[in-house]
From TrEMBL:
InterPro entries: Porin_dom_sf. This is Uncharacterized protein. It comes from Monoraphidium neglectum.
Length: 330
């Protein structure tokens, strides 16, 4: 009997496509951005995950972060992020065995108050909390999060046809001025969308090919306009090692006070990813504004992965921004 596929949170509906278009620390293949980046990830013999990153246009302006993640007990994960500017984020994630499918997370900067002016709520403003509930059976995923001055965000995803078709939406509730100078809760943003995927029987020895399509209609308040986002990915060939992905954002209503112009065109990006026979990874991406990103990731040993990436931006005269990553995770 097969295990039901876990339903993702609404903000992760397009994660498989996003992994091709931008990459991530979880799966590798992260493209360089408009700043140079150097990162290293490893896991100690005690199971502690360490990640260090330096990001900046020049060495003198680079900011560094160190992330430490440890699971001291079953169902409990502790994390800390230390920044070069003194910012520190401590977090904890609890997955109780007594409530299958429930995950609760809490994070904050406990030292923010020390550097803030007296009487400010700097420490409280860094507090973030989230609760995820995806009951066994793979039918839905509910998420609620708050903190960081972004209001309360609530989202839900439902399986309309098993894991093949997922539909959902999210709403952000924040504070708004009311009559008489009072403050009341108001809907400050919303989003609805769905994800469709199709598995195709493999004709070779590799994994089954996959097609995926997501569409999301988003309104981030009247001041930011409304847009339609469409993302698609297609694995090519019987082996499934090559994937083509595209991302398109179409503005449906201009933001308040914004004149129509180049910004009304939206954005388009196309990426190709190919997994090599050696276990390495080659990727390329081009955007509508002419920006080009290239990446090559080589597996040196079973647990050593070295990645190099370059980003060429026409707005910066195609001056290359480089990225180097070393992953020592088993």
């Amino acid at each position: 009997m097969s295990t039901p596929v876990a339903i993702p949170a609404f903000n992760l509906l397009a994660q498989p496509i996003q992994d091709v278009l931008t990459g991530s620390a979880r799966v590798g293949g992260a493209f360089a951005t408009k700043e140079n980046r150097v990162s290293i990830n490893t896991v100690t013999a005690d199971g502690i995950i360490l990640s260090a990153q330096a990001l900046g246009a020049t060495p003198s302006t680079a900011s560094t972060t160190l992330s430490v993640i440890h699971a001291p007990a079953k169902g409990l994960v502790l994390s800390s992020i230390l920044g070069s500017g003194g910012a520190t984020t401590l977090g904890a994630t609890l997955t109780p065995a007594s409530v299958p499918g429930l995950t609760a997370s809490l994070s904050a900067d406990p030292f923010a108050a020390a550097s803030a002016s007296p009487g400010s709520d700097a420490a409280l403003s860094t507090l973030k909390a989230s609760v995820d509930y995806a009951p066994p059976g793979g039918l839905m995923h509910f998420r609620a999060s708050a903190g960081g001055g972004a209001g309360i965000d609530v989202s839900a995803v439902f399986a309309a046809a098993g894991p093949t078709l997922l539909i959902g939406g999210s709403a952000t509730i924040g504070a708004a001025s009311a009559s008489g100078g009072s403050v009341a809760a108001a809907l400050t943003g919303w989003s609805i969308g769905g994800a469709w995927s199709r598995m195709v029987e493999s004709k070779g020895d590799g994994p089954a090919s996959r097609q995926q399509l997501t569409a999301t209609l988003t309104e981030a308040g009247t001041s930011k306009g409304r847009s339609l986002g469409i993302m698609a990915a297609q694995q090519v060939g019987a082996s499934g090692r090559t994937t083509v992905a595209a991302d398109c954002v179409l503005p449906l209503r201009a933001a308040k006070g914004v004149e129509t112009g180049p910004s009304a065109v939206g954005s388009v990006a196309l990426a190709v990813s190919h997994r090599l026979d050696t276990g390495g990874l080659a990727k390329a991406k081009v955007s509508h504004d002419g920006a080009i990103s290239l990446l090559y990731e080589a597996r040196i040993q079973e647990a050593v992965r070295l990645g190099t990436t370059v980003h060429l931006d026409p707005s910066a005269g195609f001056a290359p921004r480089l990225g180097i990553s070393v992953d020592l995770s088993p």
